[in-house]
Amino acid sequence: MSRVKRSLTAHKKRRKILHAAKGFFLSRGKLIRTATEAVNHAMLYAYRDRRTKKREFRRLWIARINAAARMNGISYSRLVSGMHKADIELDRKILSDLAVRDPRGFERIAALAKGELQV
Fold first, then answer.
1. Residues near 111 by Cβ (< 8 Å), separated by ≥ 6?
2. Among 87, 94, 110, 112, which residue is least crowded by beta carbons within 10 Å?
3. How far from chain centre, in Å, is Cα 35?
4. 51-60 — which CB contacts under 8 Å span 24+ positions?
5. Rounded to an integer, what distance in angstroms lies between the CA atom of residue 36 and that of residue 30?
6. pLDDT, average across residues 17-24
7. Under CATH, which number does the domain 8-118 receive?
8. What is the pLDDT of residues 23-69, one digit of tens each?
């Protein structure tokens, strides 16, 4: 079997890892073994937290909607139920944005939802 010299491939591989670890603290950004470990962990955290971010934003939107809904005399769950019955199709992101930036518009939506519940 022939001998394989990996100089170019190995250097490329190491350069790629060290480039990804640029800015890491102490040996994590300089030494290949610790940098590899740090980069692998960082990539796992990034993958996991891209999904976690979606959950956290949804929780924030629901908290904002609930606060604004209660200021208008209705709970979050009854607001959503009333909106569904009134065929108001707004997602939580837009609804929370309305609650923060346009309280009067949110108030009208809450009134529509309340009216639909009482019928």
1. 72
2. 87
3. 27
4. 57/93, 58/92, 60/96
5. 10
6. 97
7. 1.10.1900.20
8. 999 999 999 999 999 999 999 999 999 999 999 999 999 999 999 99
